[in-house]
Structure formats: structure tokens, C-alpha cells
Write a structure and sequence with these properties.
Helix 4 packs antiparallel against helix 5. The chain has six helices and no strands. By secondary structure, the chain is mostly helical. It has one domain.
């Protein structure tokens, strides 16, 4: 079981972590290109189907909910990056009015991002029975932890640490 979760986390890392370099060239940092996002989505759905025992209808509805949530998150994160750039420019220029406006807009986007998980779970609750809801929360938390652990263990491609030569022990 542990081996399967490690393999699953590595597969997710391919979608999340290793595509950062490609995405950085396109202007976004930390977001996987859409093809990789879809692969990750399929891996997550396979795990949820297996562990929650979803019916075909539940699986289809859950897939739509997760895709919609992912698309909203990607759009909001892109907007947050754009607003952060505006804030940097306004701050460098010393324009108090532009600084205030950028902070206000960035705060609103962050509130929306914070609410996405709750919104998604409210939609998920409508299609799953309580035991499946519990398993959903547990599986999604496991996935999050597994991906974080793998990300911490391997530096992003293109980072200085990725190609660093490590001194041998004395």
C-alpha cells in the first residue's frame, strides 16, 4: 500500500512539479500545462474511484466538480500573479492610490481562492454519502501530503539546487 501511494505521489509530481519550467516560459510559475493537469486529474479520479467505491454517475459528477474547481483555481492564481506584478510596479513607483487599489484587488482574489475548497466540498457532499465524504476528505489530504513530501525531496527542474553538485561526506 505504501509503495502505491509513493508511486501515485511521484506521478502527481510529474504533473505539478516537473512542468514548472515549461510553464515559466509561458509566463506562469507553479502551474502545470493543461495536458499535465488533465493527467493529474485522471490519476486523482482513479484513486478516488478505487478508494471511495464511486458509481459511474458519482464518478462523472465528481470529475466535473474537480475540473471546474481546478479551472477556477488556475484562473484565480493567474489573476493573483498579475495583481502581484501590478502591486510591485505601484510600490516601486510610490503611487499610494495604485498601491491601495492593487492590495484591495489582491485581497479579494485571495478570499476567493480560500473559499474554493469549501465551495468544492459543498458540491461534493451533494453527490456522496457520508462515509464517502469522509473517505474523500482523507484521500485528498493524503494526496496533498504525498505531493508535498515528494516536492520537498526533489527540487524543481531548473532550480539551482536541481543541478547542484553535493560534496561527498568527509
Amino acid at each position: 500500500m505504501r509503495r502505491n501511494t509513493t508511486l501515485f505521489a511521484l506521478a502527481l509530481l510529474v504533473g505539478f512539479g516537473l512542468s514548472t519550467t515549461l510553464d515559466a516560459r509561458a509566463g506562469g510559475v507553479g502551474e502545470a500545462p493543461s495536458g499535465k493537469r488533465e493527467q493529474v486529474h485522471e490519476l486523482i479520479m482513479a484513486r478516488l474511484n478505487s478508494e471511495l467505491g464511486l458509481t459511474p454517475e458519482q464518478s462523472e459528477r465528481l470529475s466535473r466538480i474537480l475540473r471546474k474547481s481546478r479551472e477556477q483555481r488556475v484562473a484565480l492564481k493567474a489573476r493573483a500573479r498579475e495583481l502581484t506584478g501590478q502591486l510591485r510596479s505601484a510600490n516601486a513607483g510610490g503611487d499610494e492610490k495604485k498601491i491601495h487599489q492593487a492590495i484591495k484587488q489582491l485581497s479579494a482574489v485571495r478570499v476567493q481562492l480560500d473559499g474554493l475548497d469549501e465551495q468544492r466540498f459543498n458540491e461534493v457532499k451533494a453527490i456522496l454519502v457520508p462515509r464517502q465524504q469522509a473517505k474523500y476528505l482523507l484521500v485528498m489530504e493524503d494526496i496533498r501530503r504525498e505531493v508535498q513530501a515528494v516536492r520537498r525531496a526533489s527540487p524543481p527542474e531548473g532550480s539551482p539546487a536541481a543541478g547542484a553538485v553535493r560534496p561527498s561526506p568527509p
